TrEMBL record:
GO biological process: carnosine biosynthetic process
Lineage: Eukaryota, Metazoa, Chordata, Craniata, Vertebrata
Designated name of the protein: ATP-grasp domain-containing protein
Pfam families (UniProt xref): ATPgrasp_Ter (PF15632)
Organism: Leptobrachium leishanense (Leishan spiny toad)
SUPFAM superfamilies tied to this protein: Glutathione synthetase ATP-binding domain-like (SSF56059), PreATP-grasp domain (SSF52440)
Domain ATP-grasp: 441-697
């Protein structure tokens, strides 16, 4: 980490001289000076040359006699000496020349003398004190001319975004330069009020100008720094992470306008630190909450440290997933992490994106998961891989990854916890049975939802109807994306849906389709595979008379409940019946440490689904909930994971917020899918890919719950081939969506589904718009959806996003 060179106070820089007459300057300094002070170079090699140009410079500094004084100061990339900034009469060219030549002999390489025009500070409002009565003597004093120095600290935040962290001010007499160390700092609001600026809109306008200007300067410095050679960076990964920008306030065209004096880091940060310490040491134990100037800097340092620690680590990842997971392999490669990918598809797209590719058919149903785990351990040892972690981002491979981690003695959640999370019935039963006579309360069972597995014959259905009232939800025991989840209103509909989902013999013929979904109410091949993989029931594809059917095989689960059959159907996937919970739906993406400590949580809101299905339609991040409700959801998610023993790791927990508190829908024992990683990275600056890899390597990341862009909100909708086939092939082709994404109008995330029509399928993509609040983001999204053709009668975006206001 580097800090910017110091430049003392002044105003609009108009001339400079460098020692030895070097015309070439450090690019970072050159760019900084050009952006900040609009420098006009005047190279001076001798006293005679200075005298020749003195009158011209004087006339340039004082056109029409508007300026009376000039400022002389020094600057440079690595100043070794500190010289006082001085003011001189613009007409006293002899004193100016003597001062300049007095400094030249002390300059080091690449240091320069800056000659600036003096700009008068905005004068304070004249306050007339009350006139005393005649019996009391009065004294008339002419108030001194005052000046304001504003110190703005800008930090490199997450995602290399400059963010203004704090502004403090100092007030002093205007006849001499105001130094950082000779005045107590105070807030911008206090200073403006003392100056007579009381209008809130005017205060906000001044602050906005300061923020935009300071962040623009930091961005210019970072851009110039990126163009430097490796040698110019002065060290590997060295960069400027914090910058101090000094301002004064003046009047331009009757408007209060900030003017840049110079760039410094140490002095501005010191002034902010003095201000914070001063407010923390008030009398009588009272304190004032103040924004920390160094917090973004500390976060940046911790983030850079995490990247440094993770660089060159080797991680075994099982399962590549679909093309929608491409960002994982690109991110890992960008961080310098060596991924050894295990994949059953020998032609996987990810084979060229990782350090090494291991083809292993973990879908082979002739072996159980334990045997597959032992085979993978043998492969790791044969290849002499030096692994720091083993994990899975793909839902169907999470149990296998946990088993391999255990055999290799690597960090990660225990396989038993991952199994519990993968089986929805077992998850709820575990929460209900986890009780203790000691705090913390409430027990995790308070968040459980009543449910019953569909056992042999009708016993599961009969038990469910005896204990749970309609409407009910029929869902697979294991699966993702709400595929195959249905709402049933009564007993007749329930039996009809179950017969179709469990594929009675008369309904086992499958229609070939490229889409995951249900054909005429029956699962097609792809969806059956999705339900069975990594669940408690396996599936083997068989050929019979040219038609494909499926044979169920049980997997070892080490749990009391085994695979369930319904109505004597031997090839039926396992399903459950659960109580239908009303309320708003939310996702909580949790980061838990090896001890189960909550490191971070990101809460998003989901829109209503299109019943009787439960496929996600719309979402918003951050949540609109109150802080108290936000905390309730986070606590429910964290306590549920701890009750299962599911830590460490990054997990996605789905809940509903009801009248009686949070209720757990399901726990996904892996990083949240769909758009969540992209949204969280964009809003909070936290990359869950890096965080997950770090935790599975035994590294605890330090994370912040505040956003990198604190006022940003994202609101988005899912687009599916079932509802948007025409638009996705015409007005909203992938190329058009990518163009809008790169132009900054939307965030476009390509997902696992198809553009072609197919019922109950996974979404093809997610598009989102940003705003300062949910209302603004929603309005932009509605406009985009109307133009692209996503807002239709069958998919009313106005309704689906109606709660995001």
């Amino acid at each position: 980490m580097c800090t910017m060179m110091e430049q003392p106070s002044g105003c609009s820089t108009l001339a400079s001289t460098e020692k030895h007459g070097e015309g070439a300057r450090d690019p970072a300094v050159e760019r900084r000076v050009r952006v900040v002070t609009r420098l006009e170079h005047v190279a001076m090699f001798s006293r005679d040359l200075w005298c020749t140009n003195a009158n011209r410079v004087g006339r340039h500094l004082c056109p029409g006699g508007k300026r009376e004084r000039v400022v002389i100061k020094t600057c440079g990339p690595q100043k070794k000496h500190s010289f006082p900034t001085t003011f001189y009469s613009v007409f006293d060219t002899i004193c100016v020349s003597e001062a300049v030549f007095g400094l030249i002999s002390h300059l080091c390489d690449k240091e320069a003398i800056l000659l600036e025009g003096f700009i008068r500070t905005l004068p304070p409002r004249k306050i007339r004190p009350p006139k005393p009565p005649p019996v009391i003597s009065s004294c008339s004093v002419r108030p001194p001319e005052l000046t304001i120095r504003l110190c703005a600290v800008v930090c490199r935040s997450r995602g290399d975004q400059p963010i203004l962290s704090k502004v403090v001010c100092s007030v002093g007499r205007a006849e001499k330069p105001l130094c950082h160390h000779f005045a107590l700092p105070q807030s911008l609001e206090t200073t403006l009020e003392l100056w007579g600026v009381n209008d809130k809109n005017q205060k906000d306008n001044i602050f906005t100008q300061l923020k935009e200007t300071a962040e623009t300067v930091m961005k210019a410095v970072m851009e110039a720094e990126n163009k430097l050679s490796h040698k110019g960076h002065r060290g590997r990964r060295a960069q400027i992470d914090i910058l101090g920008v000094d301002f004064l306030l003046t009047v331009v065209d009757y408007m209060v306008t900030p003017v840049i004096l110079g760039l410094t880091s140490n002095h501005c940060l010191e002034s902010c630190g003095v201000h914070e310490c001063m407010l923390l040491n008030l009398g009588a134990g009272a304190t004032i909450t103040t924004k920390s100037a160094s917090k973004p800097l500390v976060e940046t340092m911790l983030r850079q440290s995490l990247i440094y620690v993770m660089e060159t680590k080797e991680v075994l990842v099982i399962g590549s997933g679909g093309i929608s997971k491409k960002f994982i392999w690109e991110a890992a490669r960008g961080y310098g992490i060596k991924v050894h990918l295990v994949e059953s598809d020998a032609n996987s797209f990810a084979s060229s994106l990782v350090a090494s590719f291991i083809h292993y058919d973990y879908d082979d149903q002739s072996c159980d998961l334990e045997m597959h785990a032992q085979n993978l351990v043998a492969l790791v040892k044969d290849r002499a891989l030096s692994l720091s972690g083993c994990m899975a981002f793909w839902d169907e491979c999470t149990i296998l990854a946990a088993l391999v981690s255990t055999h290799l003695g690597l960090p990660g959640p225990p396989p038993s916890a991952v199994r519990l999370a993968k089986q929805k019935t077992q998850t709820q039963l575990c929460l209900l049975t986890k009780s203790s006579s000691s705090p913390p309360f409430p027990f995790a069972g308070a968040f459980a939802v009543p449910c019953c597995p569909l056992g042999h014959a009708n016993e599961g259905l009969i038990k469910a109807e005896a204990t749970i009232s309609y409407p009910l939800v029929v869902k697979p025991e294991s699966g993702a994306g709400a595929v195959g989840v249905r709402l049933v209103q009564d007993a007749e509909e329930c039996r009809r849906v179950i017969r179709r989902l469990t594929m009675e013999p008369s309904e086992t013929q499958c229609t070939h389709s490229e889409n995951n979904g249900i054909q005429n109410g029956v699962f097609n091949n792809s969806e059956i595979k999705e339900i069975h993989k990594a669940g408690i029931g396996g599936v083997r594809e068989l050929e019979a008379g040219g038609k494909k059917c499926f044979e169920t095989t049980s997997k070892s689960t080490n749990l009391s409940n085994e695979a369930y059959n319904f109505e004597n159907s031997t090839n039926a996937p396992s399903f459950l019946l659960a109580e239908y919970i009303t309320g708003s739906e939310h996702d909580v993406d949790l980061v838990l440490s090896p001890s189960g400590q909550l490191l971070a949580a990101y809460v998003s809101d989901n829109g209503p689904t299109l019943l009787p299905g439960f496929t996600e339609t719309a979402a918003a991040l951050p949540s609109r909930l109150s802080p108290e409700q936000h905390c309730q959801l986070v606590q429910a998610a964290a306590r549920s994971c701890r009750a299962l023993g599911l830590f460490p790791g990054v997990f996605n927990v789905e809940l509903k917020l009801t009248e009686i508190g949070p209720k757990l829908l399901e726990i996904n024992p892996r990083m949240g899918g769909f758009y969540l990683r992209d949204w969280i990275l964009h809003v909070y600056g936290t990359d869950l890919v890096l965080v997950a890899l770090a935790l599975f390597c035994g590294v605890d990341p330090a994370l912040s719950a505040t956003g990198a862009q604190e006022e940003m909100v994202l609101v988005g909708v899912m687009c599916t081939g079932e509802n948007h086939e025409e638009a996705l092939h015409n007005t909203a082709k992938p190329e058009r969506l990518a163009e809008l994404h790169h132009a900054g109008h939307i965030r476009f995330n390509k997902l696992h589904g198809s553009r072609n029509h197919g019922p109950d399928q996974e979404p093809y993509c997610n598009i989102a718009c940003k705003g300062k609040g949910q209302r603004e983001a929603r309005e932009r999204l509605l406009g985009i959806c109307a133009v692209l053709g996503f807002d239709t009668d069958k998919y009313p975006v106005h309704y689906l996003t109606g709660q995001f206001q």
